[in-house]
Amino acid sequence: MKRKELCEMQKSNYLSVVDYIRQQDKKRNGAGIAIEYDGNQITRNEYWRTIDKYGHYLRHIGFFYGCEKPVTICNLNTPEYEFIYMALLELGAICSTVSLSFFKSDIKRHSIGKGADTIVLSVEFISPELKESFKKLGNNDGENRLHRIIFTSARDYHLEEKERKYISQFDYKTMINSLELPKNIEIIFPGELKEKSSNQSTSSITEQSFNLINANATYSNTGGTTSGIPKCVVHTHEAIIELLKAHEKDVFPDFPLKEGDKTLLLIPISHITAQFYAMLVRRAVGANIVYNTEAFEQNLLTKALIEAEINDVVAPFGLYTAMAHSSLKKGDLRHLRMPTCGGESTPKGPTKIVNERLKWAGAEPIAIGGGSTEFGSATMISYGLENRSNETGLSLPGVENIIINPLTGKKASDGADGILYTNCPWQMKEYLNDEKATKEFFNYMDENGKIFGTNNDIGKIVGEYKGRPVFSLQGRATDFVLRIPGTKRYTRGITFTNGRVNPVDFKKGHFLFNMRDRLLNVPGILEAEALLISNGENDKSGTPVVNIVIASDIEPLDVLRAIYSSYGPNEAFKPEGVIFRTNFARSLATDKRETTTLHEVRKGYYKVGDDGNIYTVEIPENGNVIYTLIDDISLIQRIAPPLPKRIEVKQ
Questions:
Q1: Residue 631, Cβ density class (10 Å: 0-12 exposed, 13-18 middle, ≥19 buried)
Q2: How many CB atoms lie within 10 A of CB 7?
Q3: Contacts for 213-216 with beta carbons within 8 Å, 24 or more apart?
Q4: Are 75 and 99 in contact (CB under 8 A)?
Q5: d(CA 130, CA 632)
Q6: pTM of whole model > 0.90?
Q7: pLDDT tens digits, one per residue of 27-36
């Protein structure tokens, strides 16, 4: 049988990504556990009955099978989110999950701007700031308007005693009324959807279904974490199913997750890594997903891993760093077989320290991953590799990754740096309503006519494993825009020509990542970020500066001199100065940069002059650079962070 005919036959076996997962679950024990949440266990049978009930209730309030309605979701990591999300996908609704920060910044754009007339929102997110954001809806009139808001809460699916205690902490009606929503918006209060769906018929909602395989399933924000100007990536049901298939045992025998493993979901559900890779992939292979909203706190993460005997975590690198600094005993993490890192490329030094700590505590080292929203969050992974300190990994089954030299436009030789280009079965369909951006993303064609896309990640091939190339990514070369109320501030970085990285800027980006990794090997530096500060609108290059956190027992002068002495006199892009931070630049929850914090610390920096003295350097909006001699070194010492907990690694 030809591959095309086989694919067509496989397609006829399911109607949506949810139907595909249902079929996978039919092969398993229906009494097995699907979800654990605060002491409550939900079996697989109960899991699917609940999704059916939610589907019937959603149809009761205006949805229908094959509706293709966009729905905006901004929710906590809880079972309630998963039930609503799966029921909507099975009905054919197009789910648009969005982070709270984006949602608050422009509710209109992230709801009715995408054609959505329904928002699903956690009541825990209600705040005075959110009230101000909702005012942007105005009178909520016109042809395109918001019809309903479904409020959910972390209270649902607690054990009864804990649910009563949780409810007593909140006055939902008062909180929701404080938003002063337009009168013509239907409000579904927390628990209403769950309670009313219990009275619905439990017959399968697929009786009236039709094939959604090529229909749009999700719109996911990307490219806006730092710029505030996100694009929207569209994935079809077929694309998501291809991602799930790539992790089946007969396709990917090295994939270590198995039926019944406990997965702790620790990337915010608004992130596509949580939706696709951490939730849907785990659900398709039969894992038991553990929801624990407290485990986002670094001091409670280790406790959650030990007490729940967790086998698998998909988390940002920042959380693993925090865990490595926490109190552990030898063997505490013996159940943890799959600590997987989502987010940006991780630097070599801290990854090595974290892995040593994990192995000492009985766990496997971190399985680093590579991918992007456009490529369904995952195109390569380091399962099976012994050295996971700096390797992003092997291409997943069905994925083709190549490194292109931006100076020649051709494939780079093994070991040479270039830009990563990818083609895979689960790549995006398009950027929503942006044909130009879609064409710029898919901007490379190989000699066989295959089209590749790129996020402009700088990387290289560093070896091979069982005859397959091993890739290492250093980070993304991209423009960095800080949005500040009333103005914009640009950090000059990488520019693009026809969607491709400018060769000169490729060298700058490469320099910045090398600078970051180099500084992390300087004793006393706990975190480092290299950046280019603009000296004005006409400055096309920027001033190279490093943004670092140091231990409180380290002399800043010693750190500065160590940095400068590590660079030779003839090296290009030598760092001009150093910003000393009092806290980490990256969020522990998302591993993304905290934009506001970065703005506050980029007002100036410190440098060592030719005379060996320390100076502050200020860059006014208009005018000459101002240098001020620092006589009292304690001025710098006072802004250093407290002494971190030492990591003890025993052989």
A1: exposed
A2: 11
A3: 213/11, 213/14, 213/15, 213/16, 213/237, 213/238, 213/241, 214/238, 215/16, 215/66, 215/68, 215/92, 216/68, 216/94, 216/429
A4: no
A5: 44
A6: no
A7: 888 889 999 9
